[in-house]
Specification:
Blueprint: H1 3-10, H2 19-35, H3 42-56, H4 60-76, H5 80-90, H6 93-107, H7 115-127, H8 132-145
Helix pairs in contact: 2-3, 2-4, 2-5, 2-6, 3-4, 3-6, 6-7, 6-8
Length: 146
């Protein structure tokens, strides 16, 4: 179902993604991080829905639909390194730093910071071109919001 999309995303020198495709790719990345600790629970799904609803101005129904599509894409996406690098090449820096903040929201959604989630988030932030300092600041902003 997503093979054409993934082919476009992972080709050498991908074109910037249209807004709808960027939404799907970035939501799939949220899903991948949420699934990284082998526990993808309701609190994480609800957090992803709230993040994408707020970020993209979606209704709860539209947000859940986008998350459902992203879950399918995440399942078919290549390894995290190639998938994340493809997003980096196709999405501007401002959106990537916002994604790191959203990723921290997902990691912290269940109230537990698992080592697997921390490690994956460090890798993903780096692959997105976000340095450790900016990632830490993003985490601190999320923690401050509670």
């Amino acid at each position: 179902m997503f093979s054409d999309f993934l082919k476009r995303l992972t080709q050498p020198d991908p074109a910037p993604l249209p807004d709808e495709d960027a939404r799907l790719a970035l939501t799939a990345l949220l899903v991948r991080v949420a699934r990284s600790d082998e526990s993808y629970d309701e609190s994480e799904r609800e957090r992803i829905d709230r993040i994408v609803a707020a970020r993209y101005g979606l209704s709860p129904f539209e947000a859940a639909k986008l998350r459902g599509e992203a879950e399918g894409l995440e399942g078919e996406a290549p390894d995290t390194v190639r998938f994340t690098r493809a997003i980096k090449d196709a999405v501007d820096y401002e959106h990537r730093i916002a994604v790191v903040e959203a990723l921290w929201q997902v990691v912290l959604a269940d109230g537990v910071r698992e080592a697997e989630e921390d490690a994956l988030l460090r890798l993903v932030a780096n692959l997105l071109g976000i340095n450790d300092r900016d990632s830490a600041l993003a985490r601190q902003r999320v923690e401050a919001k509670g």
